[in-house]
Specification:
Helices cover 36% and strands 20% of the residues. It folds into two domains: 65 residues, Ribosomal protein L9, N-terminal domain (Ribosomal Protein L9, domain 1); 116 residues, Roll (Ribosomal Protein L9, domain 2). It is of the alpha+beta class and 202 residues long. The termini are far apart.
Length: 202
């Protein structure tokens, strides 16, 4: 009869050992919105080092003691009720925005490069015009300005779970790019025109 091979039992770490190995976690209450972590007032569980070395010293969060947790949970319930009321009030706007297409024109050169860029403020202005209702530029979720032509999916975070998606269609307006002389730094076309005018007068 073959003797069964038992897997080695991993020793259980004590609280102190876990802390040293970076496995210790703690609850914090966010004082302000922290990207990819949570909104202000929310309760988050994070690594001890991240909380004590970054979040708390930067004033982004406070340690969630029993008393603070109780107060935070009460505030969260109050905020949640307010968000739910706002969601109900803005649902019709979200329905109008979701799937909306807005057309924008941008100047492009011969190589298809966009002159400048289209910002969240530009998108918010266009959406406001078409929707007939003011949209704050801070509600336009753009990781970076639009710098190319074509269709771009842009999310509008109205409130809570209301995140309608708008299609921004950017069309290029061709602009002739001047040819610059490498030595003089002058526009070649302009020089040619001046020369031809002088020759014709002669």
């Amino acid at each position: 009869m073959r003797t069964p091979i038992l897997a080695p039992v991993k020793p259980t770490l004590t609280a102190g050992e876990a802390h040293k190995k970076g496995n210790h976690r703690m609850k914090v209450i966010l004082n302000q919105d922290v990207p990819k972590l949570g909104d202000a007032g929310s309760i988050q569980t994070v690594k001890d080092g991240f909380a004590r070395n970054y979040l708390i010293p930067q004033g982004l969060a406070t340690e969630a003691t029993t008393g603070r947790l109780k107060n935070a949970e009460q505030r969260l319930r109050s905020i949640q009720r307010k968000v739910e009321r706002e969601e109900e009030a803005q649902k019709s706007l979200a329905d109008r925005l979701d799937g909306m297409r807005i057309d924008m024109t941008a100047r492009v050169g011969e190589q298809g490069r966009l002159y400048g860029s289209i910002t969240s403020a530009d998108v918010a202005e266009k959406i406001s015009e078409k929707a007939g209702q003011e949209i704050d530029r801070r509600k336009i979720l753009l990781d970076e300005p639009i710098r190319s032509t074509g269709e771009h999916q842009v999310t509008v975070h109205l409130v809570g779970k209301l995140r309608p998606v708008v299609t921004v269609v950017v069309a290029g307006e061709q602009v002739e790019e001047p040819v610059v002389d490498a030595d003089s730094g002058l526009v070649v076309d302009a020089i040619s025109d001046d020369v031809s005018e002088d020759e014709s007068e002669a």
